[in-house]
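Narrative of activities, Objective 1.

The group set out to show that a structural description can be obtained from nothing but a protein's sequence at a throughput compatible with the screening campaign. Below is one input-output pair from the validation batch, recorded exactly as produced.
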Amino acid sequence: MYSRILVTLEHSPSDAAILAHVRRLAKHCGASVVLMHVADGWAARYAKALTLRESEEIRDDRAYIERCCAELEAEGVSADAVLASGNPCEEIVAAAEREGADLIAMATHGHRLLNDIVRGSVATEVRHRTMVPVLLVRATPLST
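Output recorded for this entry:
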């Protein structure tokens, strides 16, 4: 079914939902996993152009995805970690192609229409820009 799953991580508590789901799916399919975090803060976006040194935030992000990767590996799931910087949608779509992913898995926050319009949605943009299937898992319950 799936052989290589790209999993986007936010370095936030919402990652638990997508990791739990993908862990089971990868084991069931015998798929390998690529964990990806896109640092999109000011320093991350302009580090290359301004030849900035790696920020503490970037070092923390790298340690986080490597720790998540090691946890999956310890459970028998083949996993790689990718840290990117820049525009999240562009980086995710490019990584899916580069890594040969046949599924992109992302956590969503369950925003309502107006909130998505105001805040935007990386998940919505990714699913419109890629031909790779996108699995969306709700990270938090809808607020009433």
